[in-house]
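Now for our target.
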Amino acid sequence: MKRNRELKQAARAALTGKWGWAVLPGLIYFAVSGVLTAPQMLSSASTGFLDAGFITPALGLAAIGASLIGTGVTVAASLFGLEPMKVGFCNSLKVLYKDADKNTVQNMFKFGFGKERYWRNVLGMFLVGLFTGLWALLFIIPGIIKSYAYALTPYILVDNPELGPNQARLKSIEMMRGYKWKLFGLDLSFIGWILLCILSLGIGFIWIGPYIRTARAAFYYDLVENSSAAA
């Protein structure tokens, strides 16, 4: 397979002259993410009053109820809204990388919420989150390892419509066998950029997010091509 440096070079080449098209779906994703997670933030703020000691038991119970409702709304919104959007976001940058397709916003919603894709995406990403969480209960390291084993699931859900949601997850495990460390190394190579983004108060993530996702798309295609050649 290509070295990580070559994958990043390929990603930059694909993004040259198309950064705006890559950034736009990311902005939409993060804006929607902020809206959908707002109930959780509000519920956390309400429970914060519990520690202040200035409220009555009745208000305390109301705050707890608001927290539970906010958490439930956020979980449901993430599962039925953000997760399919994440699938669409990843695949919009994948086709931008492979086919120079600039219709990134349209593709994000087509791949994420298409009539024949939506429920597969929801269930597939739910299973990824469920199994990652279960492994993380053992310890954080197994959870991280499994997150890399499932990393290709968003691409497989779109590229292999004949596979069921769990089959897509299992295929990701199979494809990532022996390559989890390589993808981890690719992600780790962006640490310098990520630190700069933090220093820029997060503004830099507008560009580094699509860059990382495009590099991951390059990794995916390189792995698919090598797997096909080996077969």
